[in-house]
Amino acid sequence: MPALPLDEAGKYVAGAYVVFLALILIYVAIIGAKIARIDREISELAGEDEE
Amino acid sequence: MYSKGLAPLAAATVVTITAAFAMVFFYAPNDADQGFIQKIFYVHVPMAIVALGGFVAGGVFAIRHLRSGDPSWDLRSYVAIHMSIILGVGVLITGAIWAKASWGHWWVWDEPVLVSFLVVFLLYCVYYPLRFSIEDPGRQARYSSVFAITAGAFVPLNFAAVRMAESFTHPRVLSQTGGSMPGDMRLTFLVALLGMTLLFVTLWKLELTAKHASMQLKRMRNRARVAA
Description:
The complex is a heterodimer.
Chain A: H1 6-50
Chain B: H1 6-26, H2 41-68, H3 71-103, H4 112-125, H5 127-132, H6 137-164, H7 183-227
Helix pairs in contact in B: 1-7, 2-3, 2-6, 2-7, 3-4, 3-6, 3-7, 4-6
């Protein structure tokens, strides 16, 4: 099969790299939210302890 | 405990991946046969190699867990497999995009490299229901470790079987003699592989840190409940 022209191949290449970046960003966002929740709960627990 | 060295590791990951992507688009030449579409290779193949390496690492950590009985090795094994599953999703999607652009089909069932990766991926998808169907933490860790070792041994066997299979469609770009890649393409590929490996280790450590903090929080809560 001959190589695709640049304008057509570009869409596929961009798609592949966007999938990779989106996957990593979604994962980091989920872990970030999880760490923020743990941090908040530790602060609450420390607050209860002080009371 | 797990967060030691995480910040410099994350910085090294960002620098390496940025350098790799810059090399992909500004340094590595277009492939003579596939043209610009071959640029997908630099994200798809390193991701596949690192995902398979992560599955094997999960098996190695599981061996250490069974030998020592230390649950932290089970946690390391679980997170390595979890990270590899996430990268595996990326491998399957980017592979499908590459297949559509190169062969005109999103998926080719008679291509051993694609199908074997799917088999490995689906095998590891079984890990989650197996792990979370067991409530007792000790048994959960032991059974998960046995699975991780068995499946981890299957990964290199599967890889060798595919290598031995003859194929006319999937490009054989890596071999013991260096394959058919010219020097600038090989260098770009190696930087991309290094970046992907650093990314895996960074996210693995990040997830371990989050899981460890979550477990400590649970322990603190239980202690507070008992004290009250």
